[in-house]
Amino acid sequence: MKVFYDWASKEWFGHSGATIGGNLQPLKSSIPDIDQRALSFSLLSKNLNAGPIIGILTGKGKDNTVAGNAPLFMALQKQILQSKGISYVFTAEGINENSISGYIYLPGQNKWIQACCPLPHLVYNRVPFRKLEKSDAFQKACHFFKEHSIPFFNPGFLDKYEVYQLLKDHPELQKFIPDTIRITDKMGLKNFIAKHRHIYLKPVLGAKGNGIYRLSHVDEAKFILTGLRETFSYTDFDSFWNEWNLSLTDRSYLAQKAISPARFEGKRFDFRILAHYSQGEYRVTGIGIRQALDQDLTTHIPNGGRMIPYEKVRTKQHDEFIGMAVSEAGKLLEKNKSLFGEFSMDAGLTDKGSYVIYEINSKPMSFDEASIESKRTKELTRLFFNMAGF
């Protein structure tokens, strides 16, 4: 079905008697001399309802401009247009009762235009900051779409400790989870490092390896704290705790048993895995390998890691573990949280050949592998169309 958006009237035109969007907004009858500057779209039609219309919910940054993963949004719009749908980006503040003030990307002109958009058939939650998901505006938006029976794809960010608690009780996955505690008091952490000698300190709400440390009990009394760019030495645990307790408890940190990692060409490596929901189960979309270089604390590229092809380390055993872990983790999240549809998983391998699951992310960042990103946009588009009923 051909539909038009008229700049001057801010109205949508198309087939007489047809509607558009999740609220079945009536299309104005096509006008023969409609302004040639009007936008034209070819959409699918279901019971004379044009769509699917996909709303990508994001947020505003510090300068009050629309924030978020613009390259992903643009790639999705290209794929969605090719499949005969439309996507637009919007913030919670742009929601009105029967329309949404959003931004439509025009690939042919490589520009964004602001438009008065119909309510979507589906909302893809890409709000970029945890604090925005706690805002009144976001909560009102969630309530609004629930009231209008509009599917909400991806319920929100995951808390690392909540995920750990789910995984540690799972019969298939618990053996891959390092011993972990939430840091709440001095004695709890002191007993934990006495038990393991080498531990990681990770912010519960952190990302990209930021804020991570390794704490090691190296001899009878000495403690070494290693960060991404600096190292601290303490004569005893009390000295360490006196300096760091406020940072660890106020920001909410986890302590996790450190592993001795497997190495490729002398350097530690981890698996970064992308997964999507497909035909009733969660499947692997792509696998990237991240390798540490100057430091051995994290393999994330923004903090000094590098990308190497999965084929360089690939084995049948790796494939089987990753496929199983993705399938089971997806089912676990869906059962205890909601349908995520998309997530990434960070996993590792010990020098003894045992697998480790570090964390699961509900809002994956872009993968540096172009082939994985390309497959991602196709998988997301397929999923959007299915969930929207087209």
Brief characterization of the structure:
By secondary structure, the chain is an alpha+beta fold.
Write up this protein.
Helix content is 26%, strand content 33%. It folds into three domains: 2-153, Rossmann fold; 160-176 and 261-362, D-amino Acid Aminotransferase, Chain A, domain 1 (2-Layer Sandwich), CATH 3.30.470.20; 180-257, Dna Ligase, domain 1 (2-Layer Sandwich), CATH 3.30.1490. Helix 1 (70-82) packs across helix 8 (370-388). Strand 22 (267-278) and strand 23 form a beta hairpin. With 390 residues, the chain is of the alpha+beta class. The protein has eight helices and 26 strands. The strands form six sheets. The protein has a six-stranded antiparallel sheet, with helices on both faces. Strands 21, 22, 23, 24, 25 and 26 form a six-stranded antiparallel sheet that branches. Strands 5-2-1-6 form a four-stranded mixed sheet, with no helix packed on it. The model has no long low-confidence stretch (mean pLDDT 91).
Features:
390 residues; alpha+beta; Rossmann fold; D-amino Acid Aminotransferase, Chain A, domain 1; Dna Ligase, domain 1; 3 domains; six-stranded antiparallel sheet; 26% helix
Topology overview:
Blueprint: E1 2-6, E2 11-14, E3 19-20, E4 25-26, E5 28-29, E6 39-42, E7 44-46, E8 49-51, E9 53-58, H1 70-82, E10 86-91, E11 100-106, E12 111-117, E13 122-125, H2 130-133, H3 136-147, E14 152-153, H4 160-168, E15 180-182, H5 186-196, E16 198-203, E17 213-217, E18 223-226, E19 231-234, H6 237-250, E20 253-257, E21 263-264, E22 267-278, E23 281-291, E24 306-308, H7 316-336, E25 342-349, E26 355-361, H8 370-388
Parallel strand pairs: 2-5, 3-8, 9-10, 9-13, 13-14
Antiparallel strand pairs: 1-2, 1-6, 3-4, 7-8, 11-12, 15-20, 16-17, 16-20, 17-18, 18-19, 21-22, 22-23, 22-25, 23-24, 25-26
Helix pairs in contact: 1-8
